[in-house]
TrEMBL record, chain D:
It is found in: Cell membrane; Membrane. It comes from Bellilinea caldifistulae. It is an enzyme of class 7 (translocase). This is NADH-quinone oxidoreductase subunit A. It catalyses: a quinone + NADH + 5 H(+)(in) = a quinol + NAD(+) + 4 H(+)(out). The gene is nuoA.
Amino acid sequence: MDFLRDPFGFVIQEYTGWLGGLGLPAVWVDIIAKLTGALVLATGAMLFVVFLIWYERKLIGRIQDRFGPNRVGPWGIFQPVADMLKIFTKEYITPIGADKFAYNLAPILAVAAVLLLWSVLPLSVTVVGTDLNVGLLFLVAVGGLGEMSYILAGWGSNNKYALLGAFRLVAQLISYEVPLVLSALVPVMLAGTLSVNGIVQAQESVWFIVAAPAAALIFFIASIAEIGRSPFDLIEAESELVAGYNIEYSGLKFGMFFVAEFLHAFTVSMIFATVFLGGWQGPGAAEIPVLGFVYLMLKTFVVYFVTILFRGTLPRFRIDQMMNLNWKVLTPLSLALIMAMAIVGGLTRELPVFWQVIAFLLVNLLLLGATDQLMRLSQSRKTKSNLPMQPLRKVLTTSTKHGAGE
Amino acid sequence: MNGLQVVFLLAALVSLFSAAMVVSARRMMHAALWLVLTLMGVAVIFVTLQSSFFAVVQVLVYVGAIAILIIFSVMLTRRVMEDHGDQILPGWRAAGLVAGLLFAIIVGFLALWQGFTTMLVELPADADNLLDLGQALVSPQGYALPFELASVLLVAALIGAITIAVDRKEDQHG
Amino acid sequence: MIPLAWYLIFSAALFCIGLFGALARKNAVAILMGVELMLNAVNVNLIAFWHYYAQVRSAPYVHGLAFTTMVFVVAAAEVAVGLALVISAYRRRQTPVVDELTLLKG
Amino acid sequence: MLGNWLYIGIFALVALMMPALTIFIAGILSPKRPDPIKNSTYECGVETVGPNWTQIKIQYYVFALVFLIFDVEAVLLFPWAVAYQLLPLYAIIEGVLFLLILVVGFLYAWRKGALEWF
């Protein structure tokens, strides 16, 4: 029965027990157990991408009134496998004058930065990769490491378009990391811990998306921007531009950026499900750990579905709109939200949890409503002046002699 | 020699080597990338000291923000890129002498201190307790004043840097 | 199980490399990188002594952590303003090389 | 504590090795027929003009700057947020004050037009 209730935990226990019986020193048993865990998790994540690509193509196809892949295997499920086999046999073309080390390191780092996120995500009650006491901060910091890989790719390619694309992408990513970090403060305040597992456990009675829908919304939008997908994919808008930072990559090196993007999309969905949707929490999840895993996957797929829905239905932003959304909507909103939540939480501390959650919810909705009103106001003011875009009031250029940047 | 020591030595060697590359690389971009490696090495050093918080903050702030800021600045001051000439001032020998002397003096003085050879053992798990840090940062007996001053300092830096860096177009022909 | 001495020697070495960079480099951005190395060395020192004091007193020791936080703040402010100055000077004089920056000579 | 980090360290090595190995294996499988035209920099078929180092806009610096300031500020606020539930009301106000000071700087940057993209 143990096996049915918690297959993963059961296997882990059996495995570590078996390792311990081999007569190795305890340190090595520990290291080998961890190595195996990491290998299994990382391989699983990489193979999972194959499924994700199929799922996403199928969904996008449906959104656009197509069938999506439907030739290779039942429902076209082996299409990504065929694509992978093809890309495996493609030649690597390294551009002349590329900085070999940076050029080759970039795709590896892009995937590694995403895979590393999986090391602190709790998958169920018993399967917790590692319960780091600063887990949430770790997620944000390692997510930011991906930026370095884009810089390496753009700079190592020895191509000015790749370089410009990389810098534009990094400018976008660091901009959206501001509301991401700020909105991550709210669950930390509510849970009183930075450990991801602690945050999940704190959501036993009420999910944080109920207590702080505004923070969840900011976190979600910033996460979509972090993975650089539509509607925030103007850096490598495939229907309009050459590819951006990865323009000089071919074969599997390009494929690795592709894998990193898909895996990142799924991983941020999982982070969102963990931080705001209660992770593995659900009826009976504490007693039957495997249910927790099922719940987490269900929630993650719901979030992932919404991101794909965004991708399939929303038009692409213009870059000034995107930056305005970040700096003039999300960042002020998250700043106001933290302050309001802190004060309201301090004032309602004596009340029962139910009323406190109601107070938090009201504050969130109030701020969201106010933001909506302000956005409408500025929108109508803009249309009155009949300008297609904001006037270039303050033209800031680096140097007049050297031309205007860009 | 245990595992932790091996990790420390590796991280320290990588950091020091890449730090040396930072100060000697000809191309600024290479120096900046070596700087990233140094910072990652220092993050590992923080891990061996069991300060999870600062290890992660090191990656978040230094690698994620400061290194990117430096790389942007390198790209903004473009002429450096084309400058493959000597990147070291003529008086570098004197600078090296000063640095070497300082190193000898610091280590010499520290070696006189009796705690120098203390073995650092593993701390209990709650040693880098963020709860305590958070409470100390806002307690009036603790660091409430520095905490607020830090905010003022950050704002001053923000305002100052924007004022300096962002000139209006008309100022530029000077 | 690492001697405190290793950390102190490491941080001294990092500090001196940074100092050398700050003194000997021509490029202003590189000088700032040297300063960043020095600040990192300071952080290593602070955290090492935090560990030492937490161990000696066998109680959590918060001051080391608070000080390190402040060093992070100062490092951020320093690099922000420093790089802004370099960029501004570069845009006025078209050079990031310190020797050629003789703004004060008029 | 260190055990957690050991796992993360091992995971980091695995995460680096896995794409590296895949790329390496694919490199063995794939053909290698380099050609000066094929290896030249891709600029939509037009020959490359000028140096590859283009200069970027000051805007990038400003965004990175604001990001850095907010990042450091978040680092200071995370311990505060962890301790939040145990803090007395005046300590919460201190945190809010901290943010308010920062909002002043943010508004300045906004007014100055530093947050515009053009």
